[in-house]
Amino acid sequence: MPARRHFGSVRRLPSGRYQASYYHEAIRHVAPQTFASKSEGQAALAAIEADILRGVWIDPAGGRITLARWANDWLTSRTDLRPVTRAKYRHMLDCHVLPVLGGHELAKLRPSVVRGWYMGMRARYKTTADDAYRMLRAILTTAVTDGLIARNPCQVKGAGQSRSAERPIASVAEIAAAAEATPEHHRLAVLLPAWCQLRRGEVLGLQRRDMDLLHGTIRVDRSVVRPMSGELVIGPPKTSAGRRTIAVPSNILPAVRDHLERFVGPDADDWLFTSESGGPMLPSTLNRIWQRARKAIGRTDLFYHDLRHSGLTWSAASGASIAELMRRGGHANPTAALRYQHATEDRDRAIADALADLAAGTVVPLRTAPDRVARTRSRKA
């Protein structure tokens, strides 16, 4: 009986160890490590042959690329990223990921190395560590998809999960006081995120043509942002759902009308809030305006984004559904809108009182004492 033909070949090196090699797709591949015996080399080749037959073979040469090179190529290829997101990823790679992990080859990047990097970073910057970990996991997931590595080394349990603390909420009276403490030509910038649930970039992106006083609506079509690169970017809203038309509450319509009459130019593309150069107001300028306003009302814990958060919480408390919150807030998925549903718990007492009002005049029958005594005697008998 002829001897079974083995996949690949194993040869003895001058050092006494054995080297395994094989051909696949007309290319000769050499096992990355040597073996103490010929049988160990044949066993390794048998495992490689099984991977090829199952379609899960990984080219050992593919994983020799460094993380720095792969991450930079990955970021360059992501043409779908918004400028702000791209700048954020670039900053995290240059400042937090590549200085520690960039020199590792993909195939040699072990879960223990990633875990040590993450834990060390999380001890200093919790939120940034989770953001950087999520980005790294996405980068290495693409490497798995492209067949460069067999498994993603980002295996830290619980890492990358959002741990944002509950944001503070402003009251209606506090928003009114903050607007009063703001210069007249900037007051509307305090009212719009709270009462119309606009993001900062959406507020800065508003032009005269977006304001429909006849129907009392605002059209959100653009956003003004300034990423870490320092260049002002005027583009579409954060998500496709961000393009929306919002009904303006009647209580601030007079403020909208007054602002348009006094502080906005007559042309359709004139900005609602302008810089000294005549372009849209810079995000940093708006932040400074809000910092002075929150200090005036004694709520230095409130960030500008918390105005929008407060408004969406008010909307949920008023009975808005998840779909309604998504539409008004410009959310692309219900996850973000769900965080505001906790406000409906505050309405539980109001709901209970409303139910009681339905039963007004109706007497709920209760058991009388003699009836209870009679039933007790009956059970004893």
Written account of the structure:
46% of the residues lie in helices and 8% in strands. The protein folds into three domains: 9-57; 64-145, Orthogonal Bundle (DNA polymerase, domain 1), CATH 1.10.150.130; 172-344, Intergrase catalytic core (hpI Integrase, Chain A), CATH 1.10.443.10. The chain is built from 15 helices and eight strands. The strands form three sheets. A three-stranded antiparallel β-sheet has the order 1-2-3. A hairpin with a 2-residue loop joins strand 2 (18-24) and strand 3. The chain has 381 residues and is mainly alpha-helical.
Topology:
Blueprint: E1 9-12, E2 18-24, E3 27-30, H1 38-54, H2 67-77, H3 83-101, H4 111-122, H5 126-145, H6 172-180, H7 187-196, H8 200-204, E4 211-212, E5 217-220, E6 223-225, E7 233-235, E8 244-247, H9 253-263, H10 283-296, H11 305-317, H12 322-329, H13 334-338, H14 348-358, H15 369-380
Antiparallel strand pairs: 1-2, 2-3, 4-5, 5-8, 6-7
Helix pairs in contact: 2-3, 2-5, 3-4, 3-5, 4-5, 6-7, 7-11, 11-12
TL;DR?
With 381 residues, the protein is mainly α. The chain has helices spanning 38-54, 67-77, 83-101, 111-122, 126-145, 172-180, 187-196, 200-204, 253-263, 283-296, 305-317, 322-329, 334-338, 348-358, 369-380; strands at residues 9-12, 18-24, 27-30, 211-212, 217-220, 223-225, 233-235, 244-247.
